[in-house]
Design a protein that fits this description.
The protein has helices at residues 14-25, 27-34, 67-71, 89-98, 108-124, 142-148, 163-175, 179-188, 197-200, 203-217, 236-244, 306-326, 363-373, 404-415; strands at 4-10, 37-44, 63-64, 76-81, 102-105, 129-130, 154-160, 227-228, 247-257, 261-272, 284-291, 295-302, 340-341, 348-358, 378-387, 392-399, 402-403, 420-429. The protein is of the alpha/beta class and 432 residues long. The protein folds into three domains: 4-137 and 306-326, NAD(P)-binding Rossmann-like Domain (Rossmann fold, 3-Layer(aba) Sandwich), CATH 3.40.50; 142-302, Dihydrodipicolinate Reductase, domain 2 (2-Layer Sandwich), CATH 3.30.360; 347-429, ACT domain (Alpha-Beta Plaits). Strands 7, 8, 9, 10, 11, 12, 13, 14, 15, 16, 17 and 18 form a twelve-stranded mixed sheet that branches. A six-stranded parallel sheet has the order 3-2-1-4-5-6, with helices on both faces. β4 (76-81), α4 and β5 (102-105) form a beta-alpha-beta unit. The longest helix has 21 residues, at 306-326. It is elongated and about 85 Å long. The chain binds L-homoserine.
């Protein structure tokens, strides 16, 4: 065996640049830990990356813009993919694994959509595939699910796994500002992307919970099977009423395991103010896992950002280097069950509903009749605001558990009543 392991990096964006810096600056101590010299050998970049000031910190011959130059270099034993997005990242990772190279990636989309196939490919070619940075940035969550918690039957995962939306919701809750302003602030601070659709609509969180649920429940949970609902419909009134009722509103990613089925969903949820997740503010992420032996364990930390993410990426590089030294690979797939993902219409939760209604006699009775007809039991009703001029009132209804199907049908029926002026919001309540 050679006395060094050569690393090839794809991508010199915010994360790629930071990883390159750490690999260079900590080369000595990382090599000592790995038991072999870890050498950043080549960085595949876009031509435009070559203009970046960071490039000057490295020898010019480290960079290549040419795919063949990078992929035909047989001396590269570890490939780090940090370009994000499905393609061409998926092709790059596949090509590297087929060539028997170990791969480290932060790519949640590729792992959520193609993780099983890629891990199979890695196994077939004697390579390792690590993706700790794909979920929760610097928070160690993949390795615990793969190893440290394996003795458990994992019952559920509740996670705040998107920093951009958690920042926005924190501002709406604590400062009473509306969604558009909170989003604009998130953009100014560089948290939200120029096009934050994946964050706001819960798609980013759906990728992450699909990855975690697949590992936790050892069954394939595909991202397109994860129900997702975003945060843009939330109003400052919902936060005010949530507070009055003893709740916070968070964008939760939830996965639960039953005998033959699993649940996987992302949506805004009322959670009790005294719960651990309710106290996770700003761009912080948290993942709470319930196992039959360990009980509840909670991982909290920075879910994004170059430094935190580089912590996970570089640690994976160390694991690959150990695998290289020992001639092992750890990408064996252990999908031992085949459970179906329940449609959201089957999921049973409590609900918060905010409605504008005509402020006159018999209205509440009519609403109660519709809910009762769909077997939805009311836990409480509070009349919040009354507008005497338009003779409308705003009411908040908290229900007992009901299925998504029953709620959808009831809402459809309620919206057809003349006395219901508007269904302002319907939000699930999640007891953890
Ligand atoms: N866009 C993600 C977030 C960070 O806001 O949490 C990377 O996963």
């Amino acid at each position: 065996m050679e006395n060094e392991v050569r690393v090839g990096l794809i991508g010199l964006g915010v994360i790629g640049g930071q990883v390159a810096k750490v690999l260079q600056e900590k080369a000595g101590e990382l090599s000592l830990q790995a038991g072999i010299s870890i050498k950043l050998h080549k960085i595949k970049v876009l031509t435009s990356d070559l203009e970046k000031p960071l490039v000057k910190q490295f020898p010019p011959d480290l960079f290549t813009t040419n795919d063949e130059d990078f992929f035909n270099d047989e001396s590269i034993r570890i490939v780090i993919e940090l370009i994000g997005g499905e393609r061409p990242a998926y092709d790059y990772i596949s090509a590297a694994l087929k060539a028997g190279k170990h791969v480290v990636t932060a790519n949640k989309e590729v792992i959520a959509k193609h993780g099983l196939e890629l891990r199979s490919l890695a196994h077939e070619h004697g390579a390792s595939l690590y993706y700790e940075a794909s979920v929760g940035g610097g928070i160690p969550i993949i390795a615990p699910l793969e190893k440290d918690l394996r003795a458990n039957y994992i019952k559920s995962i509740h996670a705040i796994i998107n920093g951009t939306t958690n920042y926005i919701l924190t501002r709406m809750s604590k400062d009473g500002i509306d969604f558009d302003r909170a989003l604009a602030n998130a953009k100014q601070l560089g948290y939200a992307e120029a096009n934050p659709k994946n964050d706001i609509e819960g798609i980013d969180a759906a990728y992450k919970i699909a990855i975690m649920a697949t590992l936790a429940f050892q069954t394939e949970v595909r991202p397109d099977g994860v129900y997702h609902e975003g945060i843009s419909k939330l109003d400052s009134r919902d936060f005010r009423y949530a507070g009055e009722l003893g709740y916070e509103i968070k964008l939760l990613a939830i996965a639960k395991q039953y005998d033959n089925t699993v649940e996987a969903r992302v949506h805004p949820a009322f959670i009790r103010r005294d719960s651990v997740l309710a106290g996770i503010n700003g761009v912080f992420n948290a993942v709470s896992i319930e196992g039959d032996l360990v009980g509840q364990v909670v991982f909290i930390g920075q879910g994004a950002g170059p430094l935190a993410t580089s912590s996970a990426v570089i640690s994976d590089v160390l694991r690959c280097s150990r695998d290289y030294v020992l001639g092992t690979n750890t990408s064996a797939i252990k999908i031992s069950t085949s459970k179906t993902v329940q449609p959201i219409t089957n999921v049973n939760t409590r609900y918060y509903m905010r409605l504008s209604i005509l402020d006159s006699t018999g209205v509440l009775a009519a609403i109660a009749r519709v809910l009762g007809a769909h077997k939805i039991s009311i836990a409480s009703v509070i009349q919040k605001e009354t507008d005497t001029l338009s003779q409308t009132a705003e009411i908040v209804i908290m229900t007992h558990p009901a299925t998504g199907r029953a709620i959808d049908a009831a809402i459809k029926e309620l919206s057809m009543l003349d006395l219901v002026k508007e269904i302002n919001n319907v939000i699930r309540v999640e007891e953890q």
